[in-house]
Amino acid sequence: MSYRYILHEYAQEDYESSLQWYMERSLQAADNFVAAIDNALQLICDNPTRWRNAYKNYYELGLKKYPFTIIYTIEEDEQLIIVSAIYHHKRNPKKKYRKI
Question: What is the topology classification, in CATH, of domain 4-89?
């Protein structure tokens, strides 16, 4: 059974600002970014423990064509994925794992 997901407000802000950046440069790149995020989230929901448990209870899945990693936690009881960040690789790594 597939899990559901929600974006934490920080992840939503990351997503929107990144999408805005791509839209200012190329609509095709923006569309491809949205598709890459959607595909990654679907993969996570289908099998959430498949990817690396990087730190405490945080898991990560890196995108192939974009310099982003999706950071998430798993709520087993509710079958819910909480995306805490859509982390750009050039950002401060100390802020990678945010408390949610």
Answer: YaeB-like fold (3.30.2310)
Burial of 72 (0-12, 13-18, 19+ CB in 10 A): buried
Task: Tell me: pLDDT of 17 over 90.
Answer: yes
Rounded CA gap, 74 and 67, in Å? 23
**Cβ-proximal residues to 65 (8 Å cutoff; 6+ apart), any chain:** 32, 36
18 vs 7: CA distance, rounded Å:
14
Q: How many CB atoms lie within 10 A of CB 99?
A: 6
Q: Give which of 45, 32, 40 is closest to 5, Cα–Cα.
A: 45
For 21-70, the pLDDT digits (tens) are: 999 999 999 999 999 999 999 999 999 888 888 788 889 999 999 999 99
Q: Both tokens of residue 90?
A: 């050039």
- Domain extent listing, the chain: 4-89
